[in-house]
Amino acid sequence: MFKKVIIAEDFEEFNLAVQQTLNDFNIVNFQHAKYCDDAFLKIRKAIQDNEPYDLLISDLSFKKDHREVKIGSGDELIQKVRELQPEIKIIAYSIEDKSARIKSLFEDAEINAFVLKGRNSIEDLKKALTIISASDQKFISHEVASILQEKGNYEIDDVDIKILKYLSDGTSQDEIIEIFKNNDIKPNSKSAVEKRLAKLKDFFKANNTIHLVSITKDMGII
Amino acid sequence: MFKKVIIAEDFEEFNLAVQQTLNDFNIVNFQHAKYCDDAFLKIRKAIQDNEPYDLLISDLSFKKDHREVKIGSGDELIQKVRELQPEIKIIAYSIEDKSARIKSLFEDAEINAFVLKGRNSIEDLKKALTIISASDQKFISHEVASILQEKGNYEIDDVDIKILKYLSDGTSQDEIIEIFKNNDIKPNSKSAVEKRLAKLKDFFKANNTIHLVSITKDMGII
DNA sequence: TATCGGATTATGGATTTCCGTAAAATACTG
DNA sequence: CAGTATTTTACGGAAATCCATAATCCGATA
């Protein structure tokens, strides 16, 4: 079982529950941070002191408040920690159930477990701890397990997302093309953008561009 | 202080924290429900037994799962409870920070306190309990307090919302007009809908309709 | 009933988006 | 290098939306 754990979680309620769970596993050496920045600093410090953490339990969404932060989301924190300390085990612990985001966590940041906050999340957290401490097996809450099997959104690339984001931000297609040209983004012709939008509308079964933006917002893609 | 409390909250973590807080106030007679339906039944039963609750602490968003429910959100639960038992005190306890929703809770359902889940929510919960048990004063977490002062969205009516919802659902303006005509919704001409959209875009400072839908989605209006 | 004001509806032209076709550029293959 | 395939770009007409103006309806009031 894990010896030294760090929790990144802004809500007291979840912190309390996680700590209680760790106690149940007789893990007493843990710390928590309410901001991603703090968590990252602690992890780096621990490495320097040659006493690295062997598990990170991190929330994904952190509330913004008065404090200015460098790392604003758990996704970023996890990514940076994975680079800094590749062998650390990571549990994402979040209410997030958007497939795009979870998928990218497993594929890009290579998290070891995803525990969905919900009616029985503590149970899941215990399972995750048991499984990933004993092996390199992954764990994912069953409510969202299916999304890992989903045939990929691999057809949707970075440029598509950019277009969608700009659209949802009130930018017209003409303006987007201008921006793309000024920033040397590769397909930047009127018809290329139009074609991509047509493809996206087809893919997401959207009736029109408004619908498309609405759908992709709901799915957490933008 | 309150004698008999019911908590409607689907997350174990929050239930635990709230119950601990009640214990701190020496409130021992409380129950909790993970589904709105259950909470409502308990409240009704308590009235019939002549032992009504004097406080409801309710979350707003409840996760959907396999179980079929009649009351799907805290907003609905609160509304129904307020009708059933007008004198009960109600604390909304939620992560929700969309002004439209909070405002309507105070104005329509006349909740007594709104506690925002966040880094210091337990502190706020204690304040709310103290204040509303002793008087008819309202409490609202300071992070969202400002929105009650906001000049109203009173310019936006039911038809506006309908239009926005249909748009975000992929319906074209022409189709919306058709639907309005078939359902005898009062302004149902091309230009009336266009005029309303122009007004909304002006109000929300949206560049175009896509932007408008995106903004109103973010604000929780649709 | 006459008239005023506000809201709704009608109309038409400018702009933007939509969508199909075709040319041009680029990549890949033998 | 020729030939094929894929991607990007160009063009143009159809459709939808945007926007300003004008006509019409409808309730309130004296």
UniProtKB/TrEMBL annotation, chains A, B:
InterPro entries cross-referenced by the UniProt entry: CheY-like_superfamily, Sig_transdc_resp-reg_receiver
SUPFAM superfamilies given in the database record: CheY-like
GO molecular function ontology, one term from the record: DNA binding
Lineage: Bacteria, Pseudomonadati, Bacteroidota, Flavobacteriia, Flavobacteriales
Stated name of the protein: DNA-binding response regulator, NarL/FixJ family, contains REC and HTH domains
Organism listed in the record: Flavobacterium nitrogenifigens
Biological process annotations from GO: phosphorelay signal transduction system
Residues in coiled coil: none
Assigned keywords, A-Z: DNA-binding, Phosphoprotein
Domain (Response regulatory): residue spans on this chain: 4-132
Residues recorded as bearing 4-aspartylphosphate in the entry: D59
